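Problem: given the chain below (144 residues), write out its structure.
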Amino acid sequence: MSTHTRIRKFNTKDTYPNQSLDNDLCQAVRAGNTVYVRGQIGTDFEGNLVGLGDPAAQAEQAMKNVKQLLEEAGSDLSHIVKTTTYIIDPRYREPVYQVVGKWLKGVFPISTGLVISALGQPQWLMEIDVIAVIPDEWQPQSGA
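Solution.
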């Protein structure tokens, strides 16, 4: 029996058609009681960019993705223990962190934030990845 559950498997040749890549990846992995969520951007799971030129709108979509992936892994936002946020311009810090903070109000994760020169595609302004740890006694909340 596998101790790892791989959620939303994909190949990079499909997600980056403008690049010569052929890597098998997934959006999230649940390993025991730990959930690792791949860096999420302002693109929905159908590949549509939300918020072209708008870091707050991209952060909103990225957090929707994080929430959905955690739920698919049997978790939720309240179990996030660490976030890493990447922005391509220091002026994006406030709008992006306001959105992330709204989604994680009352969660109190540790957080790392980085300003980097670029992300995987030029239209991406921010990216966030998270790690969540599900307590042994946790039961999913109805309607979550």
